[in-house]
Design brief:
Blueprint lengths: L1 E7 L6 H10 L4 E4 L2 H6 E6 L5 H10 L3 H9 L4 E4 L1 H4 L2 E4 L5 E2 L4 E7 L5 E2 L2 E2 L4 E6 L1 E2 L14 E6 L1 E5 L5 E6 L3 E8 L2 E4 L7 H22 L1
Length: 218
């Protein structure tokens, strides 16, 4: 196994910011769309922004969808960001339904058009800083305080079938699962690479997990 983290390049997501943040922590990082390199990596980061279907189509076009899915199912440390989080679920209603990876049961839905908070209509997309509230202890989030502010940009969010996978929740008119964790998988609706010190703490936790798995496998 190659002791590097790959950031999957499929023309979607803030790739260079993720790469630089992980490198600042001492990780060996490659931004790549080479399926073989993804297959051989110690850990995988799947960023994503834009429409669910577009992201899935690009992954298919570059021969990456099955490789990424197989890598997750094999137990490799995995970090999904934004649409990279949503793709883990059965389907999205965005321009759909559009089937996802089906690794986690559940669907991706849109914020209600009439969502309100404090008597004020909420704007969609949900954009800017908001709090995350820890539902359970997760190793990747060990350095992130409960109630920390992180950065969001999204109109859709996953609704997991299994509430036990939820790691954090966030309120925006309603409470939604802002991150999930299962085994070596961690995925979040917010953007760690845009969340300053809190995001860096999360990436540090992910890198720590990746190193532990690689040390065990050697």
């Amino acid at each position: 196994m190659n002791p590097e983290i790959v950031v999957v390049d499929y023309d979607s997501g803030n790739l260079r910011s993720v790469e630089k943040a992980l490198e600042s922590l001492g990780a060996t990082v490659a931004v790549t769309r080479d399926p073989g390199r993804v297959r051989d990596a110690a850990a995988v980061v799947l960023p994503g922004q834009g429409a669910f279907r577009d992201c899935l189509d690009k992954l298919e076009r570059y021969g990456l969808a099955r490789v990424v899915r197989d890598k997750i199912l094999a137990g490799a440390p995995f970090l999904g960001i934004c649409v990279g989080y949503q793709l883990l679920f059965d389907a999205s209603e965005e321009h759909g339904p559009v089937p996802g990876f089906g690794i986690l049961g559940g669907r991706v839905v849109r914020f209600p058009r009439d969502a309100e908070a404090g008597g004020q209509r909420l704007k969609v997309p949900h954009m800017g800083w908001n709090r995350i509230h820890k539902v359970r202890d997760v190793a990747v989030l060990a350095g992130v305080p409960d109630g920390a502010h992180v950065y969001f940009v999204h109109s859709y969010y996953p609704v997991p079938d299994d509430p036990s996978v939820v790691a954090t929740t966030t309120r925006y008119g309603l409470e939604f699962a802002s991150s999930v964790a299962r085994g070596n998988l961690f995925a979040c609706q917010f953007h760690p690479e845009k969340s300053q010190q809190v995001g860096l703490a999360l990436l540090r936790g992910f890198w720590r997990q990746a190193r532990a798995v690689f040390s065990t496998d050697r």
